């Protein structure tokens, strides 16, 4: 089983455990702020399922209907996760409003907070692993899920502070106020995930540092070519699509130009994980006298 899929399955089980712990904290205290924290964890469970599905689809090889592969399935999943985060924010806002209208005292606050803190510790550890491994595996879904969990951690810390203030001050409306602040924070987190996912769906180019590395590799490995230009890149999950024009001497044979292309492709694939390279060979009168200079 692919490592990304194993991590996604682990995320689902972790989210179930965290949900159970957070709901237990709400059940003990009756706090609307702790309820808002538990509501967000329901979204974590659904998000984890979406990530499992997207990672499984994205790992499938190209076929007749999808000759470029299924890499973008992960971006679709990340958009779904972002949308669910926004839904969670609206649900929390509703609970906060009801809490303002009908404030209730918090029961067994310290016990509930201790239980809730266990869930927060689990989330911190798992979110860090998801973000780190998501970037290593170049999985948009895992990174989005990890960022969502990290936002959940911030939410949980805010809820703990709010419940402590309610206990110390006796102002029960603070419970609902903290829940409302949680909703705003969750909404902002959802917007961030949606924005980042949209860039992948819109074929955003490789980041500047990676683009510079690609240009350097082409320059160092295009022996006997004249220049390279019209370089284009785009990310799609784990794949990085690279295409450009390579200008060679008009007297060069097809076999010689093909050998140069093979050398460049091999170097790019070794340096750039998941590189898919397309090179268009052109005769020297097509030179633009700009672009990538061959060393």
TrEMBL record:
GO terms for molecular function: cadmium ion transmembrane transporter activity; ferrous iron transmembrane transporter activity; zinc efflux antiporter activity. Residues 207-284 form the Cation efflux protein cytoplasmic domain. Keywords: Cell membrane, Membrane, Transmembrane, Transmembrane helix, Transport. It is a multi-pass membrane protein. It comes from the Bacteria. One of its GO terms (cellular component) is plasma membrane. Its main location: membrane. One of its GO terms (biological process) is intracellular zinc ion homeostasis. It is found in: Cell membrane. The chain crosses the membrane at residues 7-28, 34-55, 75-97, 109-129, 149-171. The keyword Transmembrane helix applies. Residues 11-202 form the Cation efflux protein transmembrane domain. It holds the Pfam family ZT_dimer. InterPro entries: Cation_efflux (IPR002524), Cation_efflux_CTD (IPR027470), Cation_efflux_CTD_sf (IPR036837), Cation_efflux_TM (IPR058533), Cation_efflux_TMD_sf (IPR027469), CDF_Transporter (IPR050291). Belongs to the cation diffusion facilitator (CDF) transporter (TC 2.A.4) family. This is Protein p34. The lineage of its organism: Bacteria, Pseudomonadati, Pseudomonadota, Alphaproteobacteria, Hyphomicrobiales.
